[in-house]
Amino acid sequence: MTKDKLENSLNYDIETGKEKDILPLLPVRDIVLFPGVVTPLFVGRVRSKKALEWALNNGDRRICIVTQKDMEIEEPTLDDLYEVGVLANVLQMVRLPDGTTKVLIEGTKRVYVKELIFSDDFYMCVYKNVKEEEHEKSDHWSLEPLKRSVLSQFEKYVSLHPRIPPEILMTVTDAEDPSQLADLVASHLMIKIKDRQNILETIDVKERMEKILKVLFREIELLQLELSIQEKVKQQLEKSQKEYYLREQLRVIQSELGQNEEFSEIEMLRKNVIEAKMSPEAQEKALHELERMSKMPPLSAEATVVRTYIDWLINMPWEKRTRDTVDIKLAQKVLDEDHYGLEKAKERILEFLAVRKKASGKVKSQVLCFVGPPGVGKTSLGRSIAKATGRRFVNMSLGGIRDEAEIRGHRRTYIGSLPGRIIQKVRQAGTKNPVILLDEIDKIGADFRGDPAAALLEVLDPEQNSTFTDHFLEVPFDLSNVMFITTANVVHTIPKPLLDRMEVIKLSGYVLEEKYQIAKKHLIPKVLKEHGLSNKELTILPTATKKIISDYTHEAGVRELERQLAKIARKVTKRIVEEQQKKSEVVAEKIGVKDLRRYLGVPRHYDAGLPKEPQIGAIVGLAWTQAGGDVLIIEAVTMKGKGNIILTGNLGEVMQESARAALSYLKAHSEELGINDVKWDELDIHIHVPEGAIPKDGPSAGVALATVIYSVASRRKIRNDIAITGETTLRGMVLPVGGIKEKILAARRYGMKEVILPEGNKIDVEEIPQWLIKGLKITFVSEVREAIIRCVSGN
Predict the structure, then answer these.
(1) Global pTM value
(2) Do 352 and 405 form a contact (C-beta atoms < 8 A)?
């Protein structure tokens, strides 16, 4: 039948008196096309090919596409097709070599197929447009929550489905119209044809999106279940194969060794438990756990945990100990060989050994805490103590520890749990009486996981540590034979209850003479050995060593000194190796003062800005830092003003209060001090402490502040060879301060001739060796007026 005949006889509806909508029909078998979706189709039936050709050549590229109910039917009737189809545009058609045709179709809108018109060449159909807007009961805004839910579930669906590319999400996300979004999502769902057709036939947008959401929920659940099953099957196969392989290996090994008894490992562990000489409680616990282990599958996770636990109990040194050295002379010799100075620390160690010898070893171990600046030998002293006492030495750093479990251990319920570091170190030492050094105890932290310092209370308390119970071991272990030594830079950050359990021994910084002796006896031999040099190949003269200490280092300890000596050794080693490669004669190196620039560069003169001569408004104060003592230059000027005091130099609240108290004292005692002619209300006083990037605080600069204010008010110069420290009161009293030894060492290091100290610090000076203060005049004052008289030149 031709187009003209069809138009004349069929396109007129007698009932309505209107023309019928007629288009070629393309029945499809395994796909449901949705509006707004571009889909490729492969067409093989002759009628379908001719329908496409007619749409391209004689029509406006439009064609009706309807899905068949039964895929097996070659010549479908109206009853074999679904009622709702899609009106589509033919975008492109290509004939393939195998006779099929590939066509690109874009769906435009839903249509009802009302009538099927047969012809000799292809199908024609009478269709009716579906007016979707008449069925929409709410606007886009009310559909927004449903739209977001569909999008969210579709993203999850795409992520789980292996056959849907993630790029689809970009197209779907860009769709703003709810109807278009629903059709795009439905077109990419891998579901049955019947379910897809059901969604296509749902005209109301809200109802359609709800159906899609239900389908998505169902499909996601199925996909998740499928993935879970696949993963479990994979793991079971891998585990079974691994277990089979290991069992076969174990069987062959046991067969070769003649160990065919199934419980040989259990019996071996039982024997080790008995031979370990545990405490009765620990042995009972170990045997109980061993009995449980014998009833478990050998490769089960629980059996592995129990086996690890039993191994820890067996390997703990329950009764193993080293014999203490009680020869006082030998211990004294070892300590003197390893360290120069540190007399207090050495004396305390020898006292401990003497008491232990006299008490026949029944004395409880004491906890020593070495406090001092970095580099003075706190850690190495702990190692020397172990050497002097004949004990094994282990150390652990507490810096930054915030978890209580680091000390007490984790309970066995956790995967990968282990004992705390105390028990680990005891096992590492292999004896029950080692020397354990707890380094940086002043830097312990605390957070939501507990307070390690609180856990250390039991460890360091001689009355409690004989029954220390680690969370992992779950049985008491005796730590009373362990000699604990702790180190810290400061004591004010150590919790008071913990500090109360330790005997604090303060180690001050070294002066030049001490550093020279340390370098001569310890550092230079150590550096030469580390660099493979002999005394003949490298000699550092005493004058050069002292020059390095004074001009190239600025520290309380000797770490920087060791680095400078190592720098010289490296350069000499490099020169020797180069000469050996050239096969030239190796010349021995003698390092004098003149050679230091060549090896170490320009001297590092740490100019603290000390006054070169007596000046008005400049005084040398003394300060204590974590690195030892240091000088503090305090400057002051006056200017016309209203009686204000200006404080700069990054001063803390306490230091600012000291300055105000000093000013109040001077105002109140102007007549007594001979400055009653000063018009305080017309002067502003500016006090500055250089090195403003460094915070400064504390009351010990009070006397120095009063003196410098007096100097600018009276216009009298302050001596530049004198240093001062002490706290002042409003009555002009001078109160004692801390860090006296470090401050005196700092004054000597900077070439001061006299140091003014509070009267209350006499006892601190008496404890300082006299050779340290030789050539330095120490003046004690009890009132600010006395200090002013000593400092201000011309009095």
Answers:
(1) 0.57
(2) no
